[in-house]
Amino acid sequence: MKLLVVVVVAWMGLECSADLQVSMETTERASKTIVDELKALKLNSLASFLDKAKLTDALKGKGPFTVFAPTDDAFKRLSKPVMDALNKGTATAKDVLQYHVVSGRTIMSKDLKNDDIVGMLNKKNTTINVYQPMNAGKIFTINGVDITKADNKADNGVVHQISRVLYPFPNGTVGDLIKYSEAHKTLSGLLDKAKLMTTLQNTAQMFTLFAPTDAAFKLANMTELNKLNDTELSKVLLRHVLPDIYYQQAFYDNESIMTVSKETMVLIVGVGGISVVVDMIEGYVNNPNHACTNGVVHAIDRVLFK
Fold first, then answer.
1. Quick one: 218 exposed, middle or buried, by C-beta within 10 A (0-12, 13-18, 19+)?
2. N- to C-terminal Cα separation, the chain
């Protein structure tokens, strides 16, 4: 039986120029399959859920496949409704599991590039990031999730072990996340006022937003902030934005990065977490790594404004 799937792959944040059609042969079996490799790596939860969702036979086929495989501990951190769906093999379970599979390609770690966008079997995209901290080896992430054990080869593809389940799916842009967030109503209003919301909803660009919560704005000098004209307000808001995707794994202590407002942001990384400093104003990252379709949002506890 042939199962035809369309895998849409886009590179460097750009839309794909052509669809890639791949035929998965479930009748042709590889000798050491992806499923065998999952068992060898003791990724028993994933293997079990694939079986319950009736996806095992496909991954024994000719392929090739690239599987980003969560550990057993990763699945334990999911909510009860999602775990119930996985145990029952529902349509939701298939959607979640297929979001961890690339069909038609064997993607080794050497092939991964920063800001690569890779189409998954459920026709949703993931974002690959590759970081090189000072005095450390490369860090590979997919949607901000660490790839902890890469390049586990099978005859019909490769398995990369990851530290968390790729769920929930990124469901909107950086701007969308703020617009619909119950914790960022003040920031959303200011972005609209400064005409920056559409910028952060642009899928042709990648952003990292350090987003002050409503609680953070209650501690800010709102009297002075409200006096700013649109140009001045725009500069204040853009000092919270970096022009690329930086998950928390990318940061190292005393790292300096230029913001979209052309000001220097300094990262303070310690045992207690991560803080960002612009113009000697420090905000603590209290809720990091919210993946979006065009970047990532980190919530912070202070507005970077005097």
1. exposed
2. 65
95 membership: H or E segment, kind and range: helix 91-98
Q: Is the peptide bond before 288 cis (omega within 30 degrees of 0)?
A: no
Compute the distance between CA of residue 207 and CA of residue 25 in angstroms, rounded to an integer.
39
Q: How far apart are CA 230 and CA 130, in angstroms?
A: 36
Helix/strand/coil for 97: helix
Rg (CA), the chain: 21
Distance (Å, whole) CA 265 – CA 268: 10
Query: pTM of the predicted model, to two decimals?
Result: 0.86
Question: What average pLDDT score do residues 4-28 get?
Answer: 35
List the 207-212 sheet strands across, edge first: 241-242, 207-212, 295-300, 281-292, 273-278, 264-270, 255-258
pLDDT, tens only, 143-181: 999 999 999 999 999 999 999 999 999 989 999 999 999
Picking from 276, 264, 187, the residue whose alpha carbon sits closest to that of residue 233 is 187
Polymer length in residues for the chain: 306
